[in-house]
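Can you give me the bound-state structure? Components:
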Amino acid sequence: MATGRTHRPATRSRGIPEATVARLPLYLRALTALSERSVPTVSSEELAAAAGVNSAKLRKDFSYLGSYGTRGVGYDVEYLVYQISRELGLTQDWPVVIVGIGNLGAALANYGGFASRGFRVAALIDADPAMAGKPVAGLPVKHTDELEAIISDNGVSIGVIATPAGAAQQVCDRLVAAGVTSILNFAPTVLSVPEGVDVRKVDLSIELQILAFHEQRKAGEDAAQESAAQESAAPAPAVSGGADRRKGPDGDVPAVMPA
Amino acid sequence: MATGRTHRPATRSRGIPEATVARLPLYLRALTALSERSVPTVSSEELAAAAGVNSAKLRKDFSYLGSYGTRGVGYDVEYLVYQISRELGLTQDWPVVIVGIGNLGAALANYGGFASRGFRVAALIDADPAMAGKPVAGLPVKHTDELEAIISDNGVSIGVIATPAGAAQQVCDRLVAAGVTSILNFAPTVLSVPEGVDVRKVDLSIELQILAFHEQRKAGEDAAQESAAQESAAPAPAVSGGADRRKGPDGDVPAVMPA
DNA sequence: TTATGTGAATCCCTTCACAGCC
DNA sequence: GGCTGTGAAGGGATTCACATAA
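Here's the bound-state model for the whole set.
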């Protein structure tokens, strides 16, 4: 792929926007539920509600996949399930390894959502020799020494890292060297990987921090002055001997927006 | 432009873009690491590298908070740590409850990242009477019956849902009724909540599915025809008696990139 | 000279609104 | 009539590039 600009703006082969890809699993889950209730067809409106998005967005998303609906009727549930599964690559088997079998790793190993959608846990790997052989979620934990062999024997291309932060980069390097090209990282670290390797990050505490931000704002609507008061308690910047030169986004005046 | 639903421009009280808010925890983590190494100042370039973003983006992000840097020098680490913490609301104490103490709930309860950043686990709650009283991460698990009392006694405004999908909405309703206004949802369901309640969703299997999509594309570069072959095996759409009217994004012609 | 802070340009995503087909 | 599929408009976010300040 040529990094270059698209000489064909329309009709790009597989030009599915990243934002759309991220929503396909949502649609798939909603569709699977409908399928289990033997619902034959669904409208964009209904499906969008079930997936928690709006219908225009959903139709636009599906338009990148092709014209899989019927005007005046809606979408055939089974057919869409198949098409989205195929698009996501879930019609094939993906062996994954989970490295780091602490609380989180064990939770992941037991998580039903993995196995149910084309993912197969090929092995659980931990650095602690005491863990070796112990069964977790029905699988015996393997020692890190076997990592490379497991990956090549099973053709693993997706690895899940659930180790402490300190071990994550090292594990990542070994996974990549052994042939893994996609990594789901639960460790609170930025991983550096060579070009061509995908990393997705799930960070539990970051999500909470984002919630706290919004929560604070809700509370702050009543007492908008509070944060200004807090700011006065800030440690002075060490650099450039100290006149109070810090300025908030709205200066020091009360931050009231003209609606 | 009539039909305007949003009476509020939404998400603009302090004017910090949502995308920026989502990155502040990343910066904060990188800064904390620098702080622990007693690094006094850092440039946007260095900090951006540590956080895994590019420096222009970082500077733009910080510009929404205020002018906290020094031209020609960089940012004072301690000062920035404080400012970002304050902006995120981490200078105050946030009691949280975790509902659903299975593998994942236990993992969350043990997760150090929570306690370390202004979050305090006020209680662990589970519906299983057999769990009640059992210690997890040093806290005795409480029964769901006590949910409302725990929330009001502790002034909990943030709840974490780690129950099975089937129980999630019900738990959510009770949390909200009891006064919780921010929810971090690990259950694979779309929660419906009243206006004013924030929900963030973490879905482990969705992340894997997104990885699988990209992984498939990597593999497909060698054998681009394969997916066309698979498409022929698709179940025919049930709707509208059967002529082969399905069309992929490029019709039926082989989807080969000019590349 | 160095590195921040920020208008301006660009890119991407979302939403609108309606043409097209059932 | 109903609902999909999609150009076009609109809004955000990212990136560029340079004026600005230490």
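A couple of observations. Residues 1, 3, 43-45, 55, 59-60, 62-63, 67, 69-75, 240 of chain B lie near DNA strand C (CB under 10 Å from a C1'). The domain at 94-205 of chain B is CATH 3.40.50.720 (Rossmann fold).
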